[in-house]
């Protein structure tokens, strides 16, 4: 775990609520992400993790509350100012979403082409460096269909890092991976965070990943319609008294059975 108590906040959510029609997904969500940490958003299915991620990256506005990313407020930013902030963050969606007809290098070059005026040779150099960073230096000319699920995730991370984002948002990075490949991806995320100083915000419900990579986390809960825990995942595992938090981190039944073995 990296100690970042004095690092500046790069993301702040204050009293954030989201409703779809009359249905409240969450309310009163308040937390900070500090520069350089791996911050995990966790919770069971349907608690609003992906929705929160969409709010954090400015895809939609919250019903209430304020979100500041790198000191910008999405709801107040338009045009070039919004594009400038978008350039400072990277996102990898669960699907990876690489274009099947392009090689890995061409996929990584896409955002560079869209957001910079770098000439082709420089774009290729950057793409090659990013693929090298995620261990795919030898696979640059392969097509997505020719590589494994774990390699696809790595390529997705390389593409999300193409413009050197200050914050990298990952949506369920280990979804669909076997435990060994997933552990390898965790190791990559940790080493990228530590070696490049990139801040990671990771949505996941994989307990092993959370414990392996998370410096701090928040846990959302569907019934509570909001946050039920915040802090170092290992401390939450060892010390939380909240039944749902304990159930998740210790793989306990939510309500203890007095007659049953612990
Ligand atoms: N655009 C939308 N309109 C209406 N309801 C939505 C919309 N987007 C999400 N929801 C609802 O909000 C709730 C939370 O969805 P969300 O995908 O954020 O949860 P999640 O925690 O990411 O779940 P999972 O882990 O299963 O992906 C769900 O009940 C979903 O149906």
TrEMBL record:
<dbReference type="InterPro" id="IPR003593">
    <property type="entry name" value="AAA+_ATPase"/>
</dbReference>
<dbReference type="Pfam" id="PF00005">
    <property type="entry name" value="ABC_tran"/>
</dbReference>
<keyword id="KW-0067">ATP-binding</keyword>
<feature type="domain" description="ABC transporter">
    <location>
        <begin position="11"/>
        <end position="247"/>
    </location>
</feature>
<protein>
    <submittedName>
        <fullName>ATP-binding cassette domain-containing protein</fullName>
    </submittedName>
</protein>
<dbReference type="InterPro" id="IPR003439">
    <property type="entry name" value="ABC_transporter-like_ATP-bd"/>
</dbReference>
<dbReference type="InterPro" id="IPR027417">
    <property type="entry name" value="P-loop_NTPase"/>
</dbReference>
<keyword id="KW-0813">Transport</keyword>
<dbReference type="GO" id="GO:0005524">
    <property type="term" value="F:ATP binding"/>
</dbReference>
<keyword id="KW-0547">Nucleotide-binding</keyword>
<dbReference type="InterPro" id="IPR017871">
    <property type="entry name" value="ABC_transporter-like_CS"/>
</dbReference>
């Amino acid at each position: 775990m990296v100690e970042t108590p004095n690092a500046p906040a790069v993301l702040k959510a204050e009293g954030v609520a989201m409703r779809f029609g009359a249905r409240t997904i969450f309310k009163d969500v308040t937390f900070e992400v500090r520069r350089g940490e791996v911050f995990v958003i966790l919770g069971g299915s349907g608690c609003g993790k992906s929705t929160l991620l969409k709010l954090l990256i400015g895809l939609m506005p919250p019903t209430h509350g304020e979100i500041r990313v790198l000191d910008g407020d999405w709801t107040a930013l338009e045009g070039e100012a919004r594009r400038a902030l978008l350039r400072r963050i990277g996102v990898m969606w669960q699907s990876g979403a690489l274009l099947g007809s392009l090689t890995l290098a061409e996929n990584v070059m896409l955002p560079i082409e869209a957001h910079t005026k770098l000439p082709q040779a420089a774009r290729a150099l950057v793409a090659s460096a990013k693929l090298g960073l995620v261990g795919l230096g030898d696979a640059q000319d392969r097509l997505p269909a020719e590589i494994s699920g774990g390699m696809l995730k790595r390529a997705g991370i390389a593409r999300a890092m193409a413009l050197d984002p200050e914050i990298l948002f990952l949506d369920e990075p280990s979804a669909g991976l076997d435990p060994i490949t997933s552990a390898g991806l965790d190791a990559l995320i940790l080493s990228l965070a530590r070696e490049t100083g990139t801040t990671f915000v990771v949505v996941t419900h994989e307990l092993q990943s959370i414990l392996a990579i998370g410096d701090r986390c928040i846990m959302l809960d569907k019934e509570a319609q909001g946050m039920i825990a915040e802090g170092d995942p290992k401390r939450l595992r060892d010390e939380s008294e909240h039944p749902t938090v304990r159930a998740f981190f210790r793989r306990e039944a939510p309500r203890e059975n007095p007659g049953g073995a612990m």
